[in-house]
Amino acid sequence: MPTTPWKTTMTTATPDTKLKRNHPDEILIGLVSISDRASTGVYEDKGIPALQEWLGAALSSPWQVVTRLIQDDAPTISATLTELVDEVGCDLVLTTGGTGPSRRDVTPEATLAVATKEMPGFGEQMRQISLNFVPTAILSRQVAVIRETADHAALIVNLPGQPKSIKETLEGLRDADAEAGGTVKVPGIFAAVPYCIDLIGGPYVETNAEVVKAFRPKSAVRAPRQA
Q1: What are the tens digits of pLDDT across the range 150-177?
Q2: What's the CATH architecture for 10-220?
Q3: What is the pLDDT of residue 5?
Q4: What is the dihedral of CA 191, 11, 28, 122, to 10 degrees?
């Protein structure tokens, strides 16, 4: 694998700022937590902090993040996803919450409404991973899609609402020696994210293999660009 000549960086954009890359291979990420109660201050949101912590450990190339905390409302969710891709310029948008079977769980429908392509393998893999922990994983309805504009494209992925489940689905399932860096039994979905970003014209993302190893065909592996 190519060596990475930079120190991992994470910067946070203000809500009304279009993100600008500080490095050609810097990925621009939108994080969206969807919860009626958290968005109104009833309780503290845990989804966005969990995602920021995980990304900080998993990514070995530069990244920027912009966050949104919104209610479980389909028009609001769709508008937020559209804004993050079309106006802010995110390459990757990760949502958390609103993927169950209850009446207020509308994240998958709102995500599909802004899609130009569906990526069903992500949701299938998340449920496969989660079924190793809880039988109710079959109730999860996460989807992933590509949203394309004339000059830009982004991957949007729905994640579970609980920090533990977020980590499990992103990293995958390891054997009994997990604490000692055990063998991955079921790959996490993030292993496929960097190559997907490559294919839609985004930056070259590298990961910390101790957390999650990005997979690319040998022909797609390259040295990082210089700043």
Answers
A1: 999 999 999 998 999 999 999 998 776 4
A2: 3-Layer(aba) Sandwich (3.40)
A3: 41
A4: 30
